[in-house]
Design a protein that fits this description.
This protein has about 400 residues and is of the alpha+beta class. The chain folds into 2 domains: about 240 residues, no CATH class; about 100 residues, no CATH class. About 55% of the residues lie in helices and about 15% in strands. The chain has 10 helices and 6 strands, in the order αααααββββββααααα.
Length: about 400
């Protein structure tokens, strides 16, 4: 449990840290940006748990049983008549618990949190860049160019604004004001820009530099106070959940596959449904796959056993991902061939290896591979040391 918990914690921190950097680019400087970042990261936790749980369980099994093997505790158990298959029972039950948890995460939680994440990100991106404004710096917000002075972020107020709105063939508008503020609206994510004591110049159309036509008409005037909403919102709310197949729960995907609900992209629904089932089922195989790699002889290459095991798991994950992609883009790619066949192959391989380790005394057939890898890496290290002048 200790290496499992450590691996899961480190894995989640690494994955969330990578996404944190991208979220900072979107939210930094906006109102309640810290709270928004933690909310978005919270919605990402179920997504990354789907990756972290199998990886952490696999590493926990490798390190836990490797320690039992190195300390000769497995030898003592077997000498007392307790076989490896009996020692594996608790971790098989543990993998069953994690498989059920993963099925709940893949089948229900990820669908809702993915939609919530996109909805919050949509709202954040549709807040104008005025929240990112700096004093005395020209800023661009779509067709608007503006500069502010004496900005008070806490109160949402500023002094002396110059704003130029270029509208192409429809002309342009220039506004200056003594002061202004950003006002929140109930029921509308867009703030209102309120300007006080200003001047306004509006030009109808774009001037013809050749001089063949008349100059466009213009109007100018002063105002005491004007309000304008900021932002670009196509509709009052974010789109409904379910446009993307990844936002559907497992029962909803099953309902679509049975023809109870019309959908345009049936391939995406098939790929998503079968991929989730396989991802949850893979966790049940991990004890049978990890235990043979965790055990080894006293003089065996244990580190290379771990390397081969991790390569197999990563390659399998990539095959499933690419199989799901192939099912989405091709009518001829059946999910039973692209997704379920690799799962069955890994299951047969894991059970075969587990049965050999538990119920026979034959030498591990992958042992020559570990020795070969150790020999290659040893030669490369010697060559490197000779080139840099170190001891061989």
């Amino acid at each position: 449990m200790a290496p499992l918990a450590i691996a899961m914690t480190i894995g989640l921190l690494v994955l969330l840290s990578e996404r944190l950097v991208r979220l900072l680019d979107v939210t930094l400087g906006k109102k309640n940006s810290i709270g928004v970042i933690f909310e978005l990261l919270g919605y990402l936790v179920p997504h990354y748990l789907g990756l972290a749980i199998p990886a952490a369980l696999f590493l926990g099994l490798l390190f836990g049983f490797n320690r039992l093997s190195k300390d000769s505790e497995i030898d003592a158990f077997m000498a007392g008549g307790v076989g490896l298959h009996r020692l594996a029972r608790p971790v098989i039950v543990l993998s069953l618990v994690f498989a059920v948890l993963s099925l709940a995460i893949f089948g229900w939680l990820q669908a809702h949190t993915r939609y919530a994440y996109r909805a919050v990100l949509f709202t954040v991106k549709n807040v104008e860049v005025f929240y990112l404004a700096e004093e005395g710096v020209f800023m661009q917000a779509d067709s608007r160019t503006f500069i502010l002075d004496k900005l008070e972020r806490g109160e949402g107020s500023f002094e002396r604004i110059f704003l130029y709105d270029y509208r192409g063939p429809q002309g342009s508008e220039t506004v200056t004001a003594v002061n202004g503020s950003l006002i929140e609206q109930d029921g509308d994510p867009r703030p209102v820009l309120r300007l006080n004591d200003g001047h306004r110049l509006k030009i109808e159309g774009r001037p013809d530099l050749r001089g063949d036509t008349k100059l466009p008409t213009s109007t100018s005037g002063t105002f005491k106070q004007i309000d304008t909403p900021l932002g670009k919102i196509s509709g009052t709310v974010f789109r409904p959940r379910g446009i993307d197949a990844r936002e559907r729960t497992l029962p909803e995907l099953w309902s679509i596959l049975r023809g109870n609900e019309p959908v345009n992209k049936m391939n995406e629904v098939q790929a998503e449904f079968h991929k989730r089932l396989v991802s949850a089922g893979t966790i049940l195989i991990l004890p049978f796959l990890a235990l043979p790699f965790a055990l080894g002889t006293r003089r065996g290459q244990r580190a290379y056993r771990f390397a081969v095991a991790l390569v197999i798991l990563v390659a399998y994950h990539e095959i499933i991902e690419q199989g799901a992609v192939a099912t989405k883009i091709s009518q001829d790619a059946s999910p039973y061939l692209t997704i379920w066949l690799p799962f069955i192959c890994l299951t047969v391989f894991a059970l075969w290896r587990f049965s050999i380790v538990c119920f026979s005394l034959r030498k591990d057939r992958l042992e020559p591979i570990y020795d070969y890898l150790a020999e290659i890496i040893g030669r490369c290290r010697e060559m490197l040391l000779r080139r840099i002048g170190g001891p061989a």
